[in-house]
Design a protein that fits this description.
Number of helices: 16
Distance between the termini: 39 Å
Order of helices and strands: HHHHHHHEEHHEEEEHEHEEEEEHHEHHH
Helix content: 25-40%
Strand content: 5-15%
Structural class: alpha+beta
Length: 476
């Protein structure tokens, strides 16, 4: 006969959260292999020895991690879901009889203890360090790229810079922004140097690429290990192409100083093909595999590029496609980072290809002082290894896809660069965390014991695990 379920409420239930979370659940894997005890140690000086006990900072961090793991970008929504989700309650250690923190608690801690202690950067670095310790990160071949992430501000909020002082008394963001400028006395090219500034998010940069409409936003820069897809460096910068190259240098230097990684190669897109950056990579003994744009000395694509001229190192001169010599003149006075090579009016007057070469009376080349590094990088683009490294570089683009589609950061939720940095660090930490716990959860042969740092990621159950690399892990 057909059964009929009658909805009823019992006065008491025998219920244990532990019994309802599967053994292979992502949150159980994280709890098994990762220890967040360092959070309390890091924040100990931020709390008083007397008074009413506060909410455990480790619980707050675990709740924030859940939001990034499952793409819940709103803290109000996160708290609502936490009330109903069994696995989330189990991961945070909050029973049904315990009060869930109010959503405003996260903002108060973010602007206070968490930011002052730099806890989010600490979390990211500890996860990367453990990825290196267990052998997940090889560190020989890296890739770098940046992705534009829209700011939480509209284009209509932009006003001329000279009007900022007038609106500071009604806009807290603008008031804090001007205070920061006065306190830090910044002189370099930062996003605040724009002619117009957003009153909603003064640090956001007005940026456009290709045929897309300009928007306010930031660049999220990733430096990844090609073999494992682990993000070994992350930075939030102004949405300017020049910031990508500067960020890449800082992240590579940090990897060498803090992680002891000495990469042999670096893959990137054409935006990183600047002569200064290529020369800097050579000083670090890193071979660049970067596609280079043709260099047109006059900036006019109707004429030959520098690559159409042959350089003679013995004479320190260039030869044009018609075989005529351009002699070295010296350093260009207006730009002291460039060398000048020049033909003569007599050589160019009757040249049959003059219209393809120059619009002036004679041809001259303006060559960057680091053109040698660019030419060596250009030679590597013709090697078979170049195409292999460029294929590997696509992994960083897949990580950006995961960032925007799974974690939900197509648009940042927080404002100001210091808070956007927090979001990018947490997102990168979660992406690494997924790959780390899956790597630790697979079988591998025994490894000799190593002196791992305490209070960080617990390396347990490593005696029967085999080496395995996960490049594109998806959330359970």
């Amino acid at each position: 006969m057909m059964g009929q379920h009658t909805r009823s409420e019992s006065l008491f239930y025998y219920f244990r959260l532990e019994d309802h979370v599967p053994e292979n659940h992502l949150l159980r894997l994280i709890d098994r292999h990762v220890s967040f005890d360092f959070v309390r140690e890091k924040l100990r000086d931020s709390y008083s020895e007397t008074g009413r006990p506060s909410i455990d900072p480790e619980v707050l961090l675990r709740i924030l991690l859940i939001g990034y793991i499952y793409g819940v970008t709103s803290e109000r929504k996160l708290v609502e879901e936490l009330r109903m989700h069994l696995a989330w309650r189990w991961f945070t250690g909050l029973g049904f009889d315990q009060e869930i923190p109010h959503h405003s608690t996260f903002s108060k801690n973010r602007h206070g203890r968490f930011q002052e202690s730099n806890i989010f950067k600490e979390l990211f670095e500890e996860i990367v360090q453990q990825c290196v310790t267990v052998g997940l990160v090889q560190g020989d071949h890296l890739s770098v790229d940046g992705s534009f992430v829209q700011a939480d501000a509209s284009n209509a909020s932009r006003i001329p810079r000279e009007q900022l002082t007038g609106v500071a008394h009604v806009k807290q963001n603008v008031r804090e922004y001007l205070d920061d400028l006065e306190r830090e006395n910044l002189d370099d090219a930062q996003p605040h140097q724009q002619d117009k500034v957003s009153t909603t998010d003064p640090d956001a940069t007005y940026f456009t690429k290709g045929e897309h409409a300009p928007k306010l936003g930031y660049f999220d820069n990733y430096l990844i290990d090609n073999s494992s897809c682990i993000i070994v460096g992350v930075e939030a910068t102004a949405a300017r192409p020049s910031q990508e190259v500067a960020s890449a240098q800082r992240m590579l230097s940090s990897c060498a100083n803090e992680l002891g990684l000495r990469p042999k190669t670096l893959a990137a897109d054409t935006g990183y093909g600047k002569a200064e950056f290529l020369a800097w990579l050579e000083t670090q003994e890193i071979s660049s595999y970067i596609p280079l744009r043709q260099h047109y000395p006059s900036g006019d694509r109707r004429y030959y590029s520098i690559d159409d001229f042959a350089y003679d190192p013995d004479k320190n001169s260039y030869e044009c496609p018609e075989g005529k010599e351009l002699k070295y003149v010296g350093i260009k006075p207006a730009v002291n980072r460039s060398h000048l090579y020049r033909s003569t009016e007599a050589k160019c007057r009757n040249c049959p290809r003059k219209t393809e070469c120059t619009g002036g009376r004679y041809k001259q080349l303006v060559i960057h002082v680091e053109e040698g590094a660019r030419q060596r990088a250009l030679q590597r683009t013709r090697e078979p290894a170049f195409f292999r490294h460029q294929r590997e570089r696509r992994k960083v683009e897949a990580l950006f896809g995961e960032l925007k589609n799974r974690i939900g950061l197509r648009r940042v939720r927080l404002r100001r660069l210091k808070h956007v940095r927090e979001q990018f660090l947490m997102a990168a930490a979660v992406q690494n965390l997924k790959r780390l716990v899956r790597y630790l959860g697979t079988e591998r042969p025994p490894r000799p014991e190593s002196n791992n740092r305490p209070l960080q990621i617990a390396l347990r159950d490593l005696t029967s695990m085999r080496a395995f690399t996960l490049c594109f892990a998806v959330a359970l």
